[in-house]
Design goal:
alpha/beta, TIM Barrel, eight-stranded parallel β-barrel, 11 helices, 8 strands, 41% helix, binds 3-methyl-2-oxobutanoic acid, binds sodium ion, Pyrv/PenolPyrv_kinase-like_dom, magnesium ion binding, Pyrv_kinase-like_dom_sf, magnesium, Pantoate_hydroxy_MeTrfase
């Protein structure tokens, strides 16, 4: 299994890092079999799997429940679990307790937190000092979308670009193991990636990041309707899955399923009870 220090070596050697989200046993198993470098149990779980309106409804218990299933499916893949909305904002004590629970109960190798404001850099440092590697997440941070004013590209003007670079330096200085950059202009990604010595992992942040992350359901077009511009889908399971189910439905109605191939028969018909 890769460790977070291997990620740093990959940055130094120029080998791109691949990350995909997974939320359950089968998706994790697929990611591991595909050779994906690392798995993120993202709080996007709330929207893509649980059907919530946003990620703010996701709880610590939700994350633990799903991350445990992911661990069973991909026991040999470096796994990162999102700390969900408000689980690391009330007090440092509360944040540490939640982090401890998620880390211990899921056997994940790392946690991820959004932003660099307030006590978050200090939290990154304290968790890292305690032995919990932390991945930071800047740019579009969905947990604060109500403050950011929508799902928009971040850091497009001079002031916000500078702030993003300063924040990236801050989380790196506080010991973050890697940095997810979401919806950031490619030119700014390039500057940030060169400015810090931890790997950047981009989603909607261009090709210059040290790695890329996408949501499992977006890659497979599975259960999602509209896809953001930065997503590339590699198949269409909405179509393939619905077609398969439609064919099953029709086979049953027409009695073409189950066929003899899918049925069991008596070895000796004399064993059958008599019909009255
Ligand atoms: O929850 C998630 O899926 C994420 C990725 C978009 C980075 O945080
Ligand atoms: Na997330």
């Amino acid at each position: 299994m890769l460790s977070v220090t291997d990620l740093k070596n990959m940055k130094d050697s120029g080998e791109k890092i691949t990350m995909v989200t997974a939320y359950d046993y089968p998706s994790a198993k697929q990611a591991e079999h595909a050779g994906i470098d690392m798995i993120l149990v993202g709080d996007s779980l709330g929207m893509v799997v649980l059907g919530y309106e946003s990620t703010v409804e996701v709880t610590v218990d939700d994350m633990i429940h799903h991350a445990k299933a992911v661990n069973r499916g991909a026991p040999d893949t470096l796994t990162v679990v999102d700390m969900p909305f408000m689980s690391y904002h009330i007090s440092q004590e509360d944040s540490l307790r939640n982090a401890k629970r998620i880390f211990q109960e899921t056997s994940a190798q790392s946690l991820k937190v959004e932003g660099a404001s307030g006590d978050i850099p200090e939290l990154i440092k304290r968790l890292t000092d305690a032995g919990i590697p932390v991945i930071a997440h800047l740019g579009l941070t969905p947990q604060t979308v109500n403050v950011l004013g929508g799902f928009k590209v971040q850091g497009r003007d001079e002031a916000t670009a500078q702030k993003l670079l300063d924040d990236a330096r801050k989380v790196a200085d506080h010991g973050a193991a890697a940095l997810v950059l979401e919806c950031v202009p490619t030119e700014l990604t390039n500057i940030i990636t060169n400015a810090i010595d931890i790997p950047t992992i981009g989603i909607g942040a261009g090709v210059d990041c040290d790695g890329q992350v996408l949501v499992y359901h977006d890659i497979l077009k599975y259960g999602v309707d509209r896809l953001p511009k930065f997503v590339k889908s590699y198949t269409d399971l909405n179509e393939k899955g619905t077609e398969a189910l439609r064919n099953y439905h029709s086979d049953v109605k027409q009695e073409t399923f189950p066929s003899a191939d899918h049925s069991f028969f008596m070895k000796n018909k004399q064993n059958l009870p008599e019909q009255d």
